[in-house]
Structures are given as C-alpha cells and as structure tokens.
Design brief:
PPR_At4g14850-like_plant, 32 helices, about 575 residues, mainly alpha, 2 strands, RNA binding, Serine Threonine Protein Phosphatase 5, Tetratricopeptide repeat
Length: about 575
C-alpha cells in the first residue's frame, strides 16, 4: 500500500492523472493517505471538480477511511466550481462534526465556496466570525467581493495582517472602475512601503489599475520604473492606452516594444482595439498589424480574430469580418460575440439569428453581450415571439444575468408590436425599477398605437423620474392631440408651465448641396424662417407631406415608378 500511495501522489503531482487513476483503481485496499492523494491530485488539476466530488463520495461509502481536514479542504472548492451549494453546506456541517471548521484553511475554502455558489451574505458572515483570518483569508474575500475591495484592504491592515504580492494583484484587479484616484494612489503608496512595487505582478496590476482610472501618465510612470520589462507589462500599457482611446500612444509603445520583444496574441488584440477605438486613425495601420499577425501565425487565434472582426466591422468592411471569422481556428465565445455584434451593428438581423443558432449547436454558451445583440435583432426584425422566448430562457437555459439593457430592448420590442400591456408588466418587473430608456420606448409605442391608458401611467412614472425633462410631457401631449382630446393637451401644457418645464428646440441638418468634397449643411428647427428661401421651402415641405399621406402602399408606388 505504501508504494501504491507514493505512486498515486507522484503521478498526481506530475500531472499524470490517468496513471494515478489506474494505480488507485487497481489498489486492493486503500487507507486515508490513498484517498487524500487521489482527491488532492484531482483538486490541484482544477479541471475536474465533478470527479473530485465523486471520489470523495466513494470515500465516504467505502468506509475504510474517515475523511480528515485535508480531504474536506480539497472537496469544498470543487463544490464551488460546479455550483453545488447544498452539497457544500453538507460538507460544511461534516467539517463541524470533525472539529476542523475553525482551521483557517477550511474557513478560507468555505468562504470562497459560498461566494461562488451565489450566497455572498453567507460568505461574509462566515468570514466575520472566523477565529483566525490570515493573508489568504483576506485575499480570498477581496477576489470575490470587488465592490468592497478597498474597504477590505483597509480592514486587513487594521487587523495587523501584512499584504503580499498576490493580495495586491487580486485587489487591484478586483477594484471597481468607479473607485477614486486617491484610493488607487493610497494602495500604490502601501505597495511602495512594503517593497512590493518592484515585483512584476504587482507593477503590472498597478498599470492596469491606473488605466482603469484613466490616469495613463501614472501608468506610464509605473512602467518606466520597472527594473525588468516583460511582455505582460508592455501589453498592460498598450491595452491601457487602447481602453482610453489614446491610439497614437499605443502605436508608439508598440513600435518601441517590437524592437526588443516579440509581440504575442494579447499584444495584437490590444493594438488592433486601439486602432478600432479611434476612427481618425488610418485603416492602413489595422491592415499592417493584420499582416504582421499572419506572418507570426497569430491571425487565426481567438483574441486576434475577435479584434479583427470588430475592426473591420466598425470600419465598414463586414465582408472582411466574415473572412476573419471563417479563418478562426477555435471559435470560442470571443469570436462568436464579435461576429454576432458586427452583424447586429450592420443591421444584418437574419444573420444574427442564424449565427446564434450555429453558436448554440457548437456548444458555446452565449453571454449577456451576445443575447443583447440577438434581442436587438428580434426587435428590429419583428421576431417578437422568438425574442420573448430567448429573454425568458436567458437565466434558466443560458445562465446569463439579466441587464437593464435586456429589459429595455424587450420592452421596446413588445411596444413596437403593440403588446403594450405585456411591455408595461415586464418593465415593472425590472429589478432596479423601470429604466429611463424603457419608459421612453414604451411611451413612444403608446403614441404610435394610440394607447392613452398605458401612456398616462408611463408618463407619470417618467415625469417623476425626470421631472425637468420635456420629452414625456410632449409625447403624452401628442397622444392626446392625435385622439382629439384638446382639453387634455391644455392640461399637460399647464403642468409644464407650473413645473417650469420648457420644451427644448429640436434642430435638424440637411445637406444643401456639395461643392467638391465638402458638404454644405443647413441647420433648421420647427417654424424656422432664417433661410432666404423660406417660403419656397415650406411650399415643397407641404407638398411632400400631402404626397406621403396619399401613399397607401409605398412599395407598390415605388415599383410603378421603376417600371
């Protein structure tokens, strides 16, 4: 048994899990060391949490060995990995019976498990009452609770626990985008004080943090002070410039980098994103970088392909986007998201639906971005039933969180189809309350379909949400006007006067004729008389209005004209 245990341990640590399984399964008898060697080996691999749980359950049923702290410490993360909350709670109870719950290693994995299973309140409560909270405990909570990362970091220091390099990396990565520059600089100061700012991982995270805070001068300062510049640091700086739409700086850093370091997939994904983000940058740069990716054999990698699809789509060449997608070797979520979003932005809604079905057949689960593009396609294509079905199955079938944008899109889709009561009911179900965009969409639909009842309710909520904006009042007034209820129109206008709400003048622009390559734009508003040919303009506008009203079947008229 001793030799077999040693073999299982050696094979597991060496990554030869198949060999470890073979030795383990052929053992005539197993003790605690045998079971722990197999459970720990599978847990360390990280890719087979379900099998970790299976082996642990076999251990309990076998009865030859009673699990100890090591066994429990290995199986709890597996429960979090597959979202088995109830099983995790049972093992938590088992740890209490074993008397090992108070050990910091058990407490740390339990906190992480509860976070991963979607019960942050349980995780926080457990963390609060832990007997001993070491650096791993604090780092674990920071990695799971990014919104409170700064306050947790301060609490850690008050608790007398010294942060390590991993703490800084985790905390800086978890920090929310709306944190203040002062908080970021405070963390940087602590990093300097502890002597960890020279560590590559911490410095790279500082660059990323400053980029998130839109302080690229500080990010460049950290970069310049690094004793050894590795590719991760270069990529972090280029990515930061790309995120902040500082394309020229990104191009300059890239040019400096390639003199000493060979760029990788992440480098090209970042530099292509930089070119994409600024429309004034010549497309020749994007094509040049595309050629370089092909020379280095990186053109078909998922991150590069996603960036290329996005680049060509935003620069108007959807055909090249399709080509980049077709050449992608591994079509992961990144590639599918890029091509679906590209077609959605170009109005190819049938292609969006088709791609979504292909994606489902390939076994790739969509995320919120993909689903928003698909819902948008359903909205503009009139696929109302399909859109509603996809929306209703997002959480259950796809495991995606519902965003306010998803709700607003479906509300608009239902409103366009005249299903106003259904749209209103869905809008009122929004977790954070009806959004302004959803309210505006539904109110606009009420005007189109002449629904006064729903329109009044929606306008009431919208005027409470935005009391000084004139849009809701104007739309409601138009609904009444089209119904011929002039008394209600007068009442709405009186409310606007009493509340000090003024309708902003809306302007439009028209190309009044090109000279060479330049456009001559004329700005005008309702009842505008500033143009010298005002009378002629109004006569033509009135004639066009009558012609439009007389067109019962625009398509038929157009066909007759063409013939």
């Amino acid at each position: 048994m001793f030799v077999c245990n040693a073999l299982v341990t050696a094979y597991s640590r060496g990554g030869s899990l198949d060999a470890a399984r073979k030795v383990f399964d052929e053992m005539p008898a197993r003790d605690l060391v045998s079971w722990n060697a197999m459970v720990c080996g599978l847990a360390q691999e990280g890719d087979c949490p379900a099998e970790v749980i299976q082996v642990f359950v076999r251990m309990l049923k076998d009865g030859g060995a009673r699990p100890d702290r090591i066994s429990v410490c290995s199986v709890i993360p597996a429960c979090g990995g597959v979202g088995k909350l109830e099983l995790g709670r049972q093992i938590h109870s088992f740890a209490v019976k074993l008397g090992v719950e108070g050990h910091d290693s058990i407490g740390n994995v339990l906190v992480a498990m509860y976070y991963k299973c979607g019960t942050p309140d349980c995780a926080r409560k457990l963390f609060k009452f832990m007997d001993e909270r070491d650096v791993i405990s604090w780092t674990t909570v920071m990695s799971m609770d990014g919104e409170d990362a700064v306050s947790l970091f301060n609490g850690m220091r008050r608790d007398g626990v010294a942060p390590n390099e991993v703490t800084f990396v985790v905390m800086l990565s978890a920090m929310p985008g709306d944190c203040s520059a002062r908080e970021g600089q405070m963390i940087h100061a602590v990093c300097l004080k502890t002597g960890l700012s020279d560590k590559a991982a911490a410095a790279n995270s500082l660059i990323t943090m400053y980029a998130k805070l839109q302080r690229m001068d500080d990010a460049k300062m950290v970069f310049n002070l690094m004793p050894h510049l590795e590719i991760i640091a270069w990529n972090a700086l280029i990515s930061g410039y790309a995120q902040n739409e500082k394309c020229e700086d990104a191009l300059e850093v890239f040019s400096s980098m390639v003199k000493s370091i060979k760029p990788n997939e992440t480098t090209f994904a970042s530099i292509l994103s930089a070119v994409t983000s600024v429309e004034t940058v010549p497309m020749a740069y994007g094509q040049m970088y595309h050629c370089q990716t092909l020379k280095l054999g990186l053109g078909t990698r998922e991150y590069v392909s996603g960036a290329l699809i996005d680049l060509y789509a935003k620069r108007g060449s959807l055909e090249e986007s399709w080509k980049a997608f077709g050449e992608t070797v591994r079509r992961s979520l990144i590639a599918w998201t890029a091509i679906i979003s590209a077609n959605s932005k170009h109005g190819n809604y049938d292609a969006v639906i088709s791609l979504f079905n292909d994606m489902a057949r390939s076994g790739v689960a969509p995320d919120g971005v993909v689903l928003l593009s698909v819902l948008t396609a359903c909205r503009y294509s009139g696929f109302v039933s399909l859109g509603r079905e996809i929306f209703d199955s997002m959480a259950a079938k796809h495991g995606a969180d519902l965003w306010p944008e998803h709700y607003a899109c479906v509300v608009d889709m239902l409103g366009r189809a005249g299903r106003l009561d259904e749209a209103e009911e869905l809008m009122l179900r929004m977790p954070s309350g009806p959004s302004v965009s959803a309210l505006q969409s539904l109110l606009g639909a009420c005007r189109i379909h002449g629904n006064t009842d729903v329109g009044e309710r929606v306008a009431g909520v919208l005027t409470e949400t935005e009391p000084t904006e004139s849009g809701a009042y104007v739309l409601l007034s138009n609904i009444y006007a089209e119904k011929g209820d002039w008394g209600a129109v007068a009442r709405v206008r009186r409310q606007m006067r009493e509340r000090g709400v003024k309708k902003e003048v809306g302007f439009s622009w028209v190309d009044a004729g090109a000279v060479g390559d330049s456009l001559h734009l004329h700005k005008f508003s309702s009842d505008d008389t500033s143009h010298p040919r005002t009378e002629e303009i109004y006569r033509v506008a009135e004639w066009l209005g009558w012609e439009m009203k007389n067109l019962k079947n625009p398509l038929q008229v157009e066909m007759e004209y063409l013939v």
